[in-house]
Every structure is written in C-alpha cells, then in structure tokens.
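Onboarding guide, step 5: your first structure request.
Type a short instruction followed by the sequence, for example:

Predict the 3D structure of this protein.
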Amino acid sequence: MRALLILLALTLSACASTRTDWTYDDIRIVAGDEADVTAIVAQARAFSAAYVAGDTEALVAIYAKDGIAAPGGRDFVRGREALRTFWQVRPGVAIREHRLLPEELWIDGDLAYDWGYFEGVSQREGAEPSAFGGKYLVVWQRGADGVWRMANDMWNPVN
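The system replies with structure tokens like these:
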C-alpha cells in the first residue's frame, strides 16, 4: 500500500501545482454566463495556488467574511479568523500539490455552486510525499464588490 501511495504521489508531482490542463468544456455548466464562470474558476485556482504557497491570508481572502468550511469528520469552521487558524500549515508540513477537478458549475444571480474532486500531495519533514484527495462542494457568493467568494466550502476524502 505504501508503495502505491508513493507511486501516486510521484505521478501527481509530475503535474503542475494547480490544474491548468482542463478547459471550460470539461466542466458541465448548468447555468451562468462566461464572465462569472471565468471569475469563479480563477478564484478556485487561486485557492489551490495559495494553499500550495502556504499563503494563509490569500487563501482566507477567497472566503466570504462569514464563510464556513465543513471539513470531513470535523466541526464547522466559521468566519475568517477561525478559517485563518484552520488553514495554517503545521510546522514541518508542506503542501506540494493541490488541484481541483471541477465537474459541474451552476450560477444563479449572486449565488453559485460547484462540485467536483480535489487531489494533492503533502509532505511531512523527513517523510515521503503523501497523496490525498476527495470530493468537494462549494457555494459561491458574489459580494457587493462583484468578487465571487466561498460562502460554504465542504469536502471529504473518497475511500
């Protein structure tokens, strides 16, 4: 099993840190115009880039002021201050890869949802890289400033 995880991690590490090879044609757009789709996809990619860079401030800024995260197996994380604490990468741990693989995007006015899969690689100091992944569902909200931010962010591993 360990050899399989290492092989998967090495395979994933050959990819870019955020997925850039998919196009809008790979996402099932249920509703929404191209400008909103582009803006939401850009925010999703910025999230992955901030996570890999360890830039907690940039990552938290992608959430709405009262945004809520719902990590699998844990309680809700409510508001930017709690999100800032939650997303701090622990000392001795690095996120080597993170990418979203969106399946569907639905936009209605100032709300949208997108769901799909995520995958990545983390590495603890002195250890081999470890692959992770799962599924996600994000509810996006367009703010008064016109920027799409995550209102609700939910994810869990796929076994």
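Each response can be followed by summary notes, for example: The two ends are 14 Å apart (CA to CA).
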